[in-house]
């Protein structure tokens, strides 16, 4: 019986693991990657690339290596708990090499369309049209895995800022930010206190004349490093804590976590305390 053929779209972390899982299940994967390299989001470039997520030069992952590594391929011991983006990419390269995944990837190949075959109700097959160097090809696959990520396109709601068309300064989305050099001596406002907003506020403050961080509802802010120097996510994810949450319930868990977080700095005193509980919305790390 012929192996079922699977199209994998994208060669970032999800694409690489999808190729490996297909091989382990006796399937025949073929991955299409529109750029010339693996890594997706984690491959830094000075200029944002169309159709691919973009990161700034200083990005450090906010998940510890103990929690983010693949179960069958641990991150090397000498890597830091929280890795720079270049180390995350290097780990994915080692992973791809270890399991011989690169030979299943067609680089510089854009997927133009994916649609069901006319006999899909009986065959379950898909028609995938790709383009590479101006040449289009049509494939038929038994399954399609879409691994294109969700940080590709910037959300810049300019209609929410009346008068922006008269603003004489510079404005752009964090997707286009790469380093703080262009902000030397300037007054800067950063809108949003998510992970990117927090990172940029800190980094730009070393160069700018003044930095404002604007948040409409406050945020719970967690440090990467928890009690006794352990990564915070390994502490929160212990079996004991999981059991404790089941015993004491959601409300008591929120009270306990908020008390711990406020011991680091009092959110109310700094005007950061939000109305939502700490487990309602992802905190800023």
Plain-language structure description:
Its main location: endoplasmic reticulum. Belongs to the FMO family. The protein is an alpha/beta fold. It has seven helices and nine strands. The strands form three sheets. It has a four-stranded parallel sheet, covered by helices on one side. A hairpin with a 2-residue loop joins β5 and β6. The mean pLDDT is 94.
In brief, what are we looking at here?
This protein is 27% helix and 16% strand. With 285 residues, the chain is an alpha/beta fold.
What's the topology here?
Layout lengths: L4 E5 L3 H12 L3 E5 L32 H4 L16 H14 L6 E2 L3 E7 L3 H4 L2 E7 L2 E7 L1 E4 L40 E5 L3 H11 L4 E5 L17 H5 L2 H26 L21
Parallel strand pairs: 1-2, 1-7, 2-3, 8-9
Antiparallel strand pairs: 4-5, 5-6
User: What is the count of β-strands?
Assistant: 9
Give the biggest beta sheet.
Answer: 4 strands, parallel
Q: Which range best describes the helical content: under 10%, 10-25%, 25-40%, 40-55%, 55-70% or over 70%?
A: 25-40%
Query: How big is the Rg?
Result: 23 Å
Q: Which geometry do the CA atoms define?
A: globular
What structural category arises from helix and sheet content?
A: alpha/beta
Number of helix segments? 7
Q: What is the CATH-assigned architecture of the largest domain?
A: 3-Layer(bba) Sandwich
Domain module count: 2
């Amino acid at each position: 019986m012929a192996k079922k053929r699977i199209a994998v779209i994208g060669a970032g972390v999800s694409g690489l693991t999808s190729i490996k899982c297909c091989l382990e299940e006796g399937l025949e994967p073929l991955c299409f990657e529109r750029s010339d390299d693996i890594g997706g989001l984690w491959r830094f470039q000075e200029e944002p690339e169309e159709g691919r997520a973009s990161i700034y030069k200083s990005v450090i992952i906010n998940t510890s290596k103990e929690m983010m590594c693949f179960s069958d391929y641990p991150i090397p011991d000498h890597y830091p708990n929280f890795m720079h983006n270049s180390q995350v990419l290097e780990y994915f390269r080692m992973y791809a090499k270890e399991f011989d995944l690169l030979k299943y990837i067609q680089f510089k190949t854009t997927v133009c369309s994916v649609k069901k075959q006319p006999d899909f109700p009986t065959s379950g097959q898909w028609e995938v049209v790709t383009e590479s160097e101006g040449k289009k090809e049509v494939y038929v696959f038994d399954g399609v895995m879409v691994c294109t990520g969700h940080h590709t396109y910037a959300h810049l709601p300019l209609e929410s800022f009346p008068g922006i068309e008269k603003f004489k300064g510079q404005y752009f989305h964090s997707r286009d930010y790469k380093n703080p050099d262009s902000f030397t001596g300037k007054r800067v406002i950063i809108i949003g206190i998510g992970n990117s907003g927090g990172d940029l506020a800190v980094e730009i403050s070393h160069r700018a004349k003044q930095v404002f961080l604007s948040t409409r509802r406050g945020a719970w802010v967690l440090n990467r490093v928890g009690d006794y120097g352990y990564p915070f996510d390994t502490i929160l994810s212990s079996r004991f804590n999981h059991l404790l949450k089941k015993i004491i319930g959601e409300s008591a868990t929120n009270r306990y976590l908020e008390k711990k977080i406020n011991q680091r700095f009092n959110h109310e005193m700094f005007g950061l305390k939000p109305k939502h509980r700490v487990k309602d919305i992802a905190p800023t790390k």
